[in-house]
Design a protein that fits this description.
Elements (H helix, E strand, L loop, with lengths): L1 H4 L6 H34 L7 H49 L3 H6 L2 H8 L1 H34 L1 H4 L1 H43 L1 H6 L3 H27 L1 H25 L5 H43 L19 E8 L10 E8 L4 E6 L5 H6 L9 E6 L2 E2 L5 H7 E4 L8 E2 H5 L8 H10 L3 H6 L7 E2 L8 H13 L5 E5 L7 H14 L4 E5 L11 E6 L2 E6 L1 H7 L1 H16 L1
Parallel strand pairs: 3-10, 3-11, 6-9, 9-10
Antiparallel strand pairs: 1-2, 1-4, 4-5, 7-8, 11-12
The structure holds adenosine-5'-triphosphate and magnesium ion.
Amino acid sequence: MKELLSCLGKYKKYAILAPLFVALEVIGEVAIPYLMEIIVDRGIGDGSFPSNMKIVVNTGILMAVIAILSLIFGILSGKFAVKASTGFAAGIRTKQMEKIQGFSAANMDKYSTASLITRLTKDVTNIQMAFQSIIRMCVRAPLMMIFSTIMAFTLNSSLALMFLIAIPVLGISLFVIARTAYPRFNLMLREYDEMEETIQSNLISIRTVKAFVRKDFECNKFNKSSDEVNQASLRAEKVLLFNNPIMQFVTYLCMLLAAYFGAHLIVSATMKTGELMGFINYIQQILFSLMMVSMAGVMIVMSSSSFKRINEVLKEKPAIVDNLDSTIQLEDASIEFKNVNFSYSKNLDKSVLNNINLRIEPGETIGIIGGTGSSKSTLVQLIARLYDTTTGEVIVGKHNVKEYKLETLRNAVSMVLQKNVLFSGTIKENLKWGNEHASDEEIIQACKDAQAHDFIMSFPNKYETELGQGGVNVSGGQKQRLCIARALIKKPQIIILDDSTSAVDTATDSKIRAAFRKNLKDTTTLIIAQRITSVYDADRIIVMDKGNIVDIGTHDSLLKSCSIYQEVYTSQQKGVMEQ
Ligand SMILES: Nc1ncnc2c1ncn2[C@@H]1O[C@H](COP(=O)(O)OP(=O)(O)OP(=O)(O)O)[C@@H](O)[C@H]1O
Ligand SMILES: [Mg+2]
């Protein structure tokens, strides 16, 4: 709660002013029926009219002034509440976004992208709406109730005794309704989340859906999900339906009783007409405030689930702690794994890397080969500290990766991830992600090395070509080459290509490697590939199988000694022969 409230920031003053002005508004509203009573009973009631005209006029003017002031206070409190709640929402969004940017890969694995988007948008809007009404209603309703009850007792205490029965009856029914509604609303929001995930995953992968002709399946899935939201909302809203009728029944009953007994009292001259009028007005105000309490209750119920979800993000502990004060720089471009074990979960039984020991010298070119799921990507991700080892040490540039400031490490270690993406914007803007200060010459050189320059120049707008979201308007192989160029622009000491040329033809792939050999002599290069042709000319090749390093050697030595390598080689040669 404290964490969330700190998001109010400079809008705190509005969050205080809004309820303050509401209180002033309520005082005005409560005073009006009382003034009415004075006009009726003292101004008109005692029969000396028009001699008491002065009372009528004076009280009338006072009433008008109070009504106008009350209106102004109401408008101001509304304005402050809007300012406070929109500021609050912006604060929460910024704080969540900052937190998410600090998430490590392990943190990201925990949440789905769809869920994080919902937490940044819909959940924040829920909180904003709730906050806006709560800071007004939660002050207005109780104040109004207390003041109205006091005033009603002042007017006629014996008649007001009926409140002692009516208010607890209404309170209990409200409590029962809220209690029943709460779990139902929670369920409704969960169903809503699921529907949103269905929509998002469908829209993000709409091309795959079309390619597999899954339209009907996806439509059915969505309809089912949407139907579940519908049912859950019905179940939740149904409970609230009882709210208004009960409130109105009790209130009108009170009015009826007040009119009946009041009339008797007037006849017996123990109550005046104006008093009864004021009294009935107060009953109405109490009804109104109870309605507000119930609305605020619903808002709180609806937003508490969002509140919990946002708090979860804000309280998430980053799995990787950045060594912010560190000034250590890499001493060279060497890499060493010492007794490294790694598991994505806390359960070491599901170990993904087993006792890895490895040393890579500065400037070496290393190929990594192995079947799918043999943990190649996992191995290299530890070098840029996308994940921390479960046990053992990863040493880069003669220091444990944990000793560096993350920025220093990741500037030195450039990774072209297997699932790499481009962003909306021009090609040049995308390339500058690697280094925003890169000159045009540097960009062109990197693109030449990545064999991207020629196809970029063939586009009408060249480097200024707009890329669609995720780089949809370039081919798979072009996208991979742009990603390699983006990594090169960083001028890293270590570069890792994780299956980054899988969609590039063999001839271009070989040109990229030739350019690397020529222009990146001192850069330690790790190339993960499925094709042996992509790694056969590396200084050494690592062969991986089921999270283990099975063998390390040159292409020739592995062909002689490593059965897995021989198998892969033979099957790929066969593939070539059969073509
Ligand atoms: N984020 C993750 N959370 C949990 N398990 C994961 C995660 N990423 C990978 N794994 C698991 O770890 C194992 C190794 O995966 P990894 O991606 O390292 O294999 P790979 O050799 O790169 O495969 P490929 O050649 O298909 O890219 C697999 O069994 C995979 O299911
Ligand atoms: Mg992989």
